[in-house]
Amino acid sequence: MRKWILAAAMITAVPVAAVAADADAGKTVFNKCKACHQVDKNAVGPHLGSLIGRKAGSLEDYKYSDALKNSGITWDDASLDKWLQGPAKDVPGTKMIFAGIKDEGDRANLIEYLKTLK
């Protein structure tokens, strides 16, 4: 019985990177983001070009909430997956008002797409 429980726990703990992701499908998911974000310039939200590896709240030409600036987040697969599930749950006090993306595959695809943006 213990081996089965351990195996089940290991299966549910599969990291986001293990989910097959498709950048082209992520480009379609990005349509949900376009109301506030652009790739190459700030809009309602900060631009998302070269997001991976960037410290949250670090663009000098965008006014972030103190909560996000002080979050200590550096954007990678895991931090983006958590953020995209609900920004206000991840960083209370953020200015980003977005319910989140519930579908794990959509999040993985979107993250894969964001990796392509320079």
Automatic annotation (TrEMBL):
Domain Cytochrome c: 21-118
Protein name: Cytochrome c class I
Keyword Cell membrane tagged: no
A GO molecular-function annotation: electron transfer activity
PROSITE patterns recorded: CYTC
Signal peptide region: 1-20
Record organism: Hyphomicrobium denitrificans (strain ATCC 51888 / DSM 1869 / NCIMB 11706 / TK 0415)
Alphabetized UniProt keyword annotations: Electron transport, Heme, Iron, Metal-binding, Signal, Transport
